[in-house]
Write a structure and sequence with these properties.
The chain is of the alpha+beta class. The chain contains 14 helices and 19 strands. The strands form four sheets. The chain has a nine-stranded mixed sheet with strand order 1-2-6-7-8-9-10-11-12, with helices on one face. Strands 13-3-4-17-18-19 form a six-stranded antiparallel sheet. A two-stranded antiparallel ribbon has the order 5-16. A hairpin with a 3-residue loop joins strand 8 and strand 9.
Length: 465
């Protein structure tokens, strides 16, 4: 089967979504009635279905308030971190990305715009493009622009996430087990949506995402093709090709269209712009195979196996990527990424043949600091807590409010049922109080209003419905 990135841009036909003064038209109400949302333990579960424009309308209408809030947060973050205005970013992003986004993804984005407007929350296609591509823009494109302005190299993209995938002799039942923690700055810790996408064409997807995104971003997903996947960002990469296809568009096409690991990776490689460069950990529950795709800008590494494991902690495993495209020292355990990489190695050795969902949750909540050689939650632990660090580790600012804000695990049996288990907030369950943190660390007072509480929550099962 031939999968390709379509460059055709067609306008969305909004006729079914025209509004009357009384609210939704009968046609729009029928569309919304096919979707549903619910809330539990800090998560929002959202089911959408149908063609792209209808899925988008359902998404935008049912999550309008949350999408509007997240765009507000991004505006504040962008202004503080760049000093540049939000409309300027929208103009740049639209010119760079829009013509490279495939028709179906554009239809879904336009559907979200229409749905939000139906719920009296205003946005535009350009704003949603910039919002969906925020990581690529903020971490990869903007440092290149800043270098033109300041004449000096900006800091490389942030390091984030801890993940593993295991199969065969590594697991208790011989099937696949996948676990993932997301690390971000806490103002961005808002990917609390579990979206169940049932498209008219392609594979059904259940994934974690942000309100208003057509991709995952945190990157934890499963599909009815039998694929499961996660990623960890490759630290220290700064290459970016403005002529390439945005990562968020490639991810969505790969995840919805691909029937196999190989074809998923082929779609991700096509038009690669180097933005949001990740080590992807993938599994096929039908064959028991697992794989790792390290997708940098200039070099690509790919390997598969039916017995063993792969881990991710933001260190490139491929030597060409590590040596030629990053400045990482893979032996410096003072670094969060290297420390977590070494911790994964030991946990994999110690738990060979015993890894199941329960043990996966325990490993994601691990607080052992390899450098200090003791249990201490911080920026170097698999369940990261940079807000507790009093000294600088790499590019991390002391007491920087960031780290792990979730935990997700899935095994073969759950993936067959299109289900997984997740915890909102730190994988270890430690709560975070924004008010308490800001009172103690007033240097971050600019985050007031965008830094949110995350109380302790239980592990919760989600299933496509």
């Amino acid at each position: 089967m031939n999968f390709r990135i379509y460059l055709l841009v067609l306008p969305l036909i909004l006729a079914p979504f025209e509004l009357t003064l009384a609210g939704l038209t009968p046609e729009a109400k029928i569309i919304v009635d096919r979707a549903h949302r619910s809330e539990t333990n800090g998560w929002i579960y959202l089911h959408v279905e149908g063609p792209a424009s209808e899925r988008g309308f359902q998404h935008g209408y049912l999550l309008a308030r949350e999408i509007g809030e997240e765009i507000r947060v991004r505006r504040v973050l962008w202004k503080h971190e760049s000093s540049m205005e939000w409309p300027w970013l929208l103009e740049k992003a639209s010119a760079m990305f829009e013509r490279k986004i495939d028709h179906e993804n554009l239809e879904e984005l336009d559907g979200i715009v229409a749905g939000m407007r139906a719920a009296s929350v205003e946005t535009t296609r350009a704003e949603l493009i910039a919002y969906n591509g925020f990581f690529e823009l903020n971490w990869y494109w903007w440092p290149k622009e800043l270098k033109k302005i300041k004449g000096q190299t900006a800091a490389p993209p942030k390091q984030a996430c801890s993940s593993f995938i295991a199969t065969g002799s590594m697991t208790a039942d011989g099937g696949i087990v996948l676990g993932h923690d997301t690390f971000f700055d806490y103002p961005e810790a808002s990917a609390n949506v579990v979206i169940d996408i049932h498209p008219r064409q392609g594979h059904r997807i259940v994934m974690q995402t942000y309100p208003g995104w057509i991709h995952s971003g945190t990157d934890f997903f499963l599909t009815d093709a039998g694929l499961v996947g996660s990623e960890t960002t490759i630290g220290g990469l700064s290459g970016f090709d403005e002529n390439g296809v945005p990562e968020f568009a490639r991810f969505r096409r790969a995840t919805q269209d691909a029937p196999s690991i190989d074809e998923w990776c082929a779609i991700m490689r096509q038009g690669n712009n180097g933005g949001y460069a990740n080590a992807w950990l993938l599994g096929d529950i039908r064959s028991g195979e697992i794989a790792r795709l390290e997708l940098a800008q200039q070099n690509v590494a790919f390997e598969k196996k039916k017995d063993g494991y792969f881990t991710g902690s933001n260190v490139a495993e491929d030597l060409r990527i590590l040596r030629l495209e990053t400045d990482d020292n893979d032996m410096d355990v003072r670094s969060s990424s290297v420390a977590r990489r070494e911790r994964w190695k030991k946990l994999m050795r110690d738990n060979k043949g015993r890894i199941d969902l329960a043990r996966a949750r325990e490993m994601l909540a691990d607080h052992y600091d390899v450098y200090l050689e003791k249990n201490r939650p911080g920026g170097r632990s698999l369940c990261g807590h940079s807000e507790l660090d009093s000294a600088q580790f790499g590019h991390v600012t002391p007491y920087s409010p960031g780290g792990c804000f979730d935990g997700k695990v899935v095994d073969t049996a759950m993936a067959r049922e299109m289900s997984f288990v997740a915890r909102w907030g730190a994988a270890c369950g430690t709560p975070f109080s924004a008010k308490t943190f800001l009172a103690k660390h007033p240097q971050f007072d600019w985050m007031e209003g965008i830094l949110k509480d995350r109380p302790r929550q239980p592990w919760t099962e989600f299933k496509a419905q």
